[in-house]
Specification:
CATH architecture of the largest domain: 3-Layer(aba) Sandwich
Strand order of the largest sheet: 4-12-11-10-7-5-6
CATH superfamily of the largest domain: Type I PLP-dependent aspartate aminotransferase-like (Major domain)
Strand content: 15-25%
Number of domains: 2
Number of helices: 13
CATH class of the largest domain: Alpha Beta
Order of helices and strands: HEEEHHHEHEHEHEEEHEEEHHHEEHEEH
Shape: globular
CATH topology of the largest domain: Aspartate Aminotransferase, domain 2
Bound molecules: 4'-deoxy-4'-aminopyridoxal-5'-phosphate
Number of strands: 16
Length: about 425
């Protein structure tokens, strides 16, 4: 059923009840009514089709409705959508755990499943804290995170985010205080972090970082040397190292894990987003045998004290196994490489638009940083991108593309064309200086 102007009835009715994410509902326009997806396209209720530039918050890496994943979900749904994991095993979860371990060459052979990225990071933090607690070092309750970082929206993960990102300003003072450091991008920053660790290592459980790209903090890239320095410092000061690969992992940067590019392994690693190819909520926290060993004991209270209802959900794990198949059976990583070769060059002309501060990218990520002054500008840009047939959601001071890895040339041209068309208009309308 559609109401006036082609909008379906459920849209207006439901908008009075659904609390939308990160949305000022008093002033935001109604969301677009999506009714179907296919490949890199989203079909709207009014018949328009948008080329998706963000893969639904960076998750739909194979494009939408990939038949191999859809079939796996259907088959599993018929057989057994879910059974609790405590005391009961299910094949998709057990197979997936081994396959994820293999991604780390079994350096991180123990896998804990949850349903969202934030919870996977929460679990990583709990594992790190309990690792020390089980060894009589319960005073190691603090974490070190990095400027520009983002790790989730739950309380402990909020405490790791850079407060300057503005996502969680309302909760300062509620979320626990941690140490915020500069990424060790050079010798001076490494020395600063080393001093922080020398003073506070004895009360620090772990350092937490997004390898090679800080996503929600503004798509900020750093080189693999940072991860090597972090590994060195973690070893020297005997703190655990957590890599949050929720955005960077599973191909987005051209390798199955971003940390592969540094030849460094953390003690704990988190995955989500692309894990099911963007189809079902699933996250994983992987740990090394050293970490796992600290939970082995004849005391029940030494076991990992975590167990979400849907941990190891068979349906989601079947989707994840199918998604991993696609990395083997289709040339995904080559596609990311090919995309990297095209993405930044095709966005490069934006550099000449007044108000554009930077154009950068890596792997299947392209970023244009803007001199953006107001939320009104963001809202305007979002609307204009839809008018141009693209689904592009700028945030903070960036317009970015994180499309499906195998997006074809035509759809990519629609996305980059929309950006090249809309940004000059934005620049004129909002009076940006050269
Ligand atoms: N860590 C990183 C690096 C992320 O990019 C995100 C989500 N943007 C999260 C954690 C949180 O994941 P979720 O939104 O699934 O809770």
């Amino acid at each position: 059923m559609t109401g006036g102007g082609g909008a379906p009835d459920w849209l207006g009715d439901g908008y009075g009840h659904v609390w939308m994410p990160y949305t000022q509902m008093q002033t935001s326009p109604l969301p677009q009514a999506a009714v179907a997806t296919s490949g890199t396209r989203i079909r709207l209720a009014d018949g328009r089709e948008l080329v998706d530039g963000v893969a639904s918050w960076w998750a739909a890496c194979h494009g939408y409705n990939h038949p191999h994943i859809v079939d796996a979900i259907k088959t599993q749904a018929d057989r057994m959508p879910h059974v609790m994991l405590a005391g009961l095993a299910n094949e998709p979860a057990f197979i997936l755990a081994k396959r994820l371990s293999m991604l780390t060459d079994h350096a991180l052979p123990r896998v804990f499943f949850s349903e969202s990225g934030s919870v996977a990071v929460e679990v990583a933090l709990k594992i790190a804290a309990q690792y020390w607690h089980n060894q009589g070092q319960g005073q190691r309750s603090k974490f070190i995170s990095f400027r520009g970082g983002y790790h989730g929206d739950t309380f402990a993960t909020m405490s790791l985010c850079d407060p300057a990102d503005g996502f969680h300003a309302a909760f300062q003072g509620v979320a626990p205080a941690q140490f915020l450091a500069d990424l060790p991008v050079d010798g001076a920053a490494e020395e600063g972090l080393s001093q922080l660790l020398a003073q506070n290592g004895h009360r620090t459980a772990a350092m937490v970082v997004e390898p090679l790209v800080q996503g929600a903090g503004g798509m900020l890239f750093h080189d693999p040397g940072v991860l090597q320095r972090l590994r060195r410092l973690a070893d020297t000061h005997d703190v655990l190292l957590i890599f949050d690969e929720i955005f960077s992992g599973l191909g987005r940067l051209g390798t199955m894990l971003a940390c592969d590019q540094a030849a460094v392994r953390p003690d704990i690693l988190t995955l989500s987003k692309t894990l099911t190819g963007g189809t079902l909520p699933l996250a994983a926290t992987l740990a090394s045998e050293k970490v796992f060993d600290a939970f082995q004991s004849d005391k029940l209270e030494h076991c990992l004290m975590h167990g979400p209802t849907f941990t190891g959900n068979a349906l989601a794990c079947a989707a994840a196994n199918a998604s991993l198949d696609l990395f083997m059976h289709e040339p995904r990583l080559h596609q990311v490489q090919a995309l990297e070769d095209r993405l930044v060059p095709s966005l490069a002309p934006c550099r000449d638009i007044p108000g554009v501060q930077d154009v950068r990218g890596k792997g299947a990520i392209g970023v244009i940083q803007l001199d953006i002054g107001s939320f009104e500008e963001l809202t305007w840009l979002r609307g204009r991108f839809v008018d141009a047939g693209s689904w592009i959601r700028p945030f903070g001071n960036i317009v970015y593309l994180t499309p499906a890895y195998g997006i074809d040339d035509g759809d990519l041209a629609t996305l980059t064309g929309a950006i090249l068309h809309v940004l000059p208009e934005w620049s004129d309308k909002f009076g940006k200086a050269a």
